[in-house]
């Protein structure tokens, strides 16, 4: 039986008087790729931020195996070393080179040997086609290159699970493919991942399980075929029909 790495139980998150997440339950198994879809503002990104201890919650629990994840708790630094998160806007330090951005956390937080981390970082950069950019600064990179660097930075911490928060949303269309290719390769390597995305074709290709969230609740979940091809809930069908309409419009324009 596959080991459960991350569990979310009865999670509730509120901003002032607005409920963002309402009684969310989720279990992520080792090596599983879970893709979360849903309309803007439904709570997808907030759920990821709660998983990484970036948001305080009103009730419920989140655990990495048996360790509780709570914003502001004393064990959060240690927990975040096991949960890598890649954001939409890269979060790279502009005054550091690509290599120094990657080396910072493993050497300062994990106290690992710089020579060993550098060797690992260069191998990862080579894998994503960016070894020649190790000495470059973020301003010298394209959006797709910055996002690939952000992924390498997360990988260099050797996390148990990776969280991706709409990492292609800010990219030009021609740069999206290069980032998604890296994530597809991670899926083939059986990396445990939770991915928030609006890229439905990518979701079909990469996911073991798809969750549709709306109004702070998981409305439907299942395999990509079950949720994306044969959704049972009317709300899921309405959401996916938007993407079908966009495809038709694109064909008409082209």
Quick recap of the structure?
This protein has 9 helices and 10 strands.
Topology:
Elements lengths: L3 E12 L2 E12 L3 E5 L6 H8 L7 E6 L2 E2 L7 H5 L2 E4 L11 H11 L5 H14 L15 H13 L5 E5 L7 H16 L4 E4 L3 H7 L2 E6 L2 E6 L1 H6 L4 H20 L1
Parallel strand pairs: 3-8, 3-9, 6-7, 7-8
Antiparallel strand pairs: 1-2, 1-4, 4-5, 9-10
Descriptive account of the structure:
Mean pLDDT is 91; it is low at 245-254. It is built from 9 helices and 10 strands. With 254 residues, it is an alpha/beta fold. The longest helix is centred in the C-terminal third of the chain and has 20 residues, at 234-253. The chain is globular, with a radius of gyration of 18 Å. The chain has helices spanning 44-51, 76-80, 98-108, 114-127, 143-155, 173-188, 200-206, 224-229, 234-253; strands at residues 4-15, 18-29, 33-37, 59-64, 67-68, 83-86, 161-165, 193-196, 209-214, 217-222. It has a 6-stranded mixed sheet with strand order 6-7-8-3-9-10, with helices on both faces. Strands 2-1-4-5 form a 4-stranded antiparallel sheet, covered by helices on one side. A hairpin with a 2-residue loop joins β4 (59-64) and β5. The chain starts with a strand and ends with a helix.
Measure the end-to-end span: 48 Å
- The backbone outline, from C-alpha atoms, is globular
Kindly state the number of beta strands.
Answer: 10
SSE pattern: EEEHEEHEHHHEHEHEEHH
């Amino acid at each position: 039986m596959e080991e459960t790495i991350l569990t979310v139980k009865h999670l509730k998150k509120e901003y002032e008087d607005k409920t963002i997440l309402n009684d969310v339950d989720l279990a992520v198994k080792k090596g599983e790729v879970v893709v979360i879809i849903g309309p803007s503002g439904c709570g997808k990104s907030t759920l990821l931020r709660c998983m990484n201890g970036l948001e305080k919650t009103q009730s419920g629990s989140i655990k990495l195996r048996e360790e509780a994840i709570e914003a502001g708790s004393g064990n959060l630094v240690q927990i975040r070393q096991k949960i890598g998160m890649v954001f939409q806007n890269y979060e790279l330090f502009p005054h550091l080179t690509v290599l120094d951005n990657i080396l910072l956390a493993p050497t300062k937080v994990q106290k690992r040997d710089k020579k060993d981390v550098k060797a690992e970082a260069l191998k990862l950069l080579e894998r994503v086609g960016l070894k020649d950019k190790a000495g470059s600064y973020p301003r010298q990179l394209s959006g797709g290159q910055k996002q690939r660097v952000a992924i390498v930075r997360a990988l260099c911490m050797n996390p148990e699970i990776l969280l991706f928060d709409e990492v292609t949303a800010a990219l030009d269309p021609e740069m999206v493919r290069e980032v998604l290719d890296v994530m597809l390769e991670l899926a083939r390597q059986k990396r445990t991942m939770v991915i928030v995305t609006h890229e439905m074709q990518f979701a079909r290709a990469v996911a073991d399980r798809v969750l549709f969230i709306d109004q702070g609740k998981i409305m439907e979940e299942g395999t990509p075929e079950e949720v994306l091809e044969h959704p049972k809930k009317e709300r899921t069908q309405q959401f996916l029909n938007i993407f079908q309409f966009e495809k038709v419009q694109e064909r008409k324009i082209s």
